[in-house]
Design goal:
Layout (H helix, E strand, L loop, with lengths): L9 E3 L9 E3 L2 H10 L7 E5 L5 E10 L2 E11 L7 E5 L4 H13 L4 E6 L10 H15 L6 E2 L3 E2 H6 L6 E5 L8 H10 L5 E5 L7 H8 L4 E4 L8 H16 L8
Parallel strand pairs: 1-3, 6-7, 6-11, 7-8, 7-9, 10-11, 10-12
Antiparallel strand pairs: 2-5, 3-4, 4-5
Helix pairs in contact: 2-3, 2-7, 5-7
Length: about 250
Amino acid sequence: MARYDFAATRLFVEDALHAGAKIAAGADRANFLLNVLRLKEGDKILVFNGRDGEWLASIAQAKKREAILAIGERTRPQEGGPDIDYCFAPLKHARLDYVVQKAVEMGAARLCPVLTRRTQVSRLNLERMRANVIEAAEQCGVLRVPEVAAEVPFERMIAQWPQDRLLVFCDEDAEIADPVEALVAARERGARAVGLLIGPEGGFDEKERALALSAPNVLRISLGPRILRADTAAVAGMALIQSVFGDWAGSMI
């Protein structure tokens, strides 16, 4: 039996969740439920807020621009997850949406945009990023909703990097070696909290590369013999991190 009911409608809400609570869905969400999905009073959905687990709810009241949700029983307790920062140079438009969605699906705890010299965009729409995070969580069964940090210059990110957090620096100039072996060795040395650093299209310049390697706890790895697009590198890198530090092995950090 599948762990999740993927056919069920899942809705993110900001409100606290407990049995017997009544929640106003808001105009946009009410429109989605009542006019897009054509749900009606008495229909059931799943709701979550990233804090209190997942709950079964029914539409207790349905009006043209308003829906009241009655919270019933909890279907899943709140989940934790691996302590992974996804640090990335933002891309443009649909490709940024893609990497944000994939980072959520792959179990990132925080999304940390980093502005490098070759970054394609200088300002981000953080509200759009947050909306993409929520949409991805709703669609893929995730209960933990990743944090979205404001963008920071690359130099500041390196200067502020915590000494107790491993920084996995994906560098196309790194020697071709076994990245899994390198990550396992880092884990055996005691690394648990991890940041994955993915550069922009065109990669890091030499000054940035040298700066990244000066970080207090950095592991430089290659993602293979082929040059990957930044969005492809994001998925490949997250898969490597999850296979060693994440919950793919069957245990939460």
